[in-house]
Each structure stands twice: as C-alpha cells, then as structure tokens.
Amino acid sequence: MQERTLRQEVSSGKSDKQIAAKRPGKVPDRDMVWIPGGTFMMGSDHHYPEEGPAHLVRVDGFWMDRYAVTNKQFQRFVKATGYVTVAERPPKPEDYPGAIPDLLVPGSAVFQQPKHRVNLQTCSWWVYVPGANWRHPAGPGSSIKGRENYPVVHIAYEDALAYAAWAGKSLPTEAQWEFAARGGRDGPCWCDSLLRN
Q: Is 108 buried (19+), middle (13-18) or exposed (0-12) by CB count in 10 A?
C-alpha cells in the first residue's frame, strides 16, 4: 500500500474491531497465519532519519507466511521457472557509471565476523563477494547442502516479488510487516533497550 492510501485508511473512520473482523474464510496456505488489522505508530523519530517521522497507520487484516522462505522452497521455484536472481546476474554498467568493468561481476554482500570492536554506525562487517548468491551463501565453494530448511538469502526485492507471484502470494507492505513484527506492541521497538545500553 502506498502511504497516501494508509493515511486515507486512518481517516476512514473504521474501528480496529471492524478491520480485524474482515478475516476471509479459508486459509490460503497451511503455513500462513491471519494477522488481524489495527492501528499503530509506524516508524521512529529516534533511529535512522528515513524511518521518521513516526506516524499513525491503520492496516486491514492480512495473511502472512508463518516462516521465512527456505532454500528448498526457493529451489523449487527456480527449478520450475528457470529464474535467475539479481545476485546471479552481472550488474549493468549503466547502473554503475564509472565502475571498473572487471568489477561488475555477479555476487552479493556476505557477513564477515569482525575480529575486533567496530563502529556500529558503519557496515564494515559486510563484504561484497563475487559469486555469492542463494546457492552459494558464503561465496564460491559454499553451498546450501544440509541447509535446505534455512531461510534463503541473497534475495533482492525483485527476486522476492517473482517468488511470491509464482507461489500465488504477495509480499507484505512495509506497514503490514512492521505491524506484524511488533506483535501487537505499539511504541518503541524491542531493540530500543539494546540501543540505549
């Protein structure tokens, strides 16, 4: 949903009980759960600038997968469709003007455990690794063998959209995801106490 639509919903006059009561009859998939809608304070005025300003949002009830998509599920999708993820495709030179052509190779950012304390304001623990993708999560030489039930990684937004369309589902909006992740809690997120210490 676009933010404009969300603001319209907040001003629509529907009560949270009316929104939550809209649950459709049949469960679309056995691993999906119904998230009753409601109103919450979305965003934050205390973390990253792009998360603010905090604002009141109302979402209708929605279905959401109970679990993250696994490597096994994503592998079925790729086998059925021949889909190639963003991390498996060479980056387009026009998207990276001035880049050295030899560096425009398929890959993704991989977490590297720092050996010492780091500044938490930077992402120094993520390193671009040529050849890293969902099949090779730590780069060439790694695999998902034995990790079939782990969440699939190195998936871009367009990859997630393609998978969801194939599975007959849709991705939650940012508002739906935040509402579900809060688990009914409004106000500061669970991580606030960690950030204060």
A: buried
Residue 79's closest CA among 20, 152, 7, 163?
Answer: 163
* 42 close to 175: Cβ distance less than 8 angstroms: yes
User: What is the enclosing helix (H) or strand (E) of 59?
Assistant: strand 55-59
Residue 11's pLDDT is 44
87 sits in the region (left: phi over 0; alpha: psi -120 to 50; else beta) called: alpha
Torsion sign over Cα 52, 58, 62, 67: positive
What are the phi and psi torsion angles at 109 (to 5°)?
A: -80, 135
**What pLDDT digit, counting tens, does each position of 21-77 carry?**
566 778 888 899 999 999 998 888 887 788 889 899 999 999 999 999 999 999 999
SS3 33: strand
Residue where the block lists tokens 């030489």:
141
Distance CA 170, CA 125 (A): 31
- Neighbour-count burial for 130-149, b at 16+ CB within 10 Å, e otherwise: ebbbbbbbebeeeebeeeee
- Give SS3 for 120: coil
What is the residue whose two structure tokens read 């993250």?
Answer: 68
Q: Is the pLDDT of residue 158 over 50?
A: yes
Q: Are 110 and 130 in contact (CB under 8 A)?
A: no
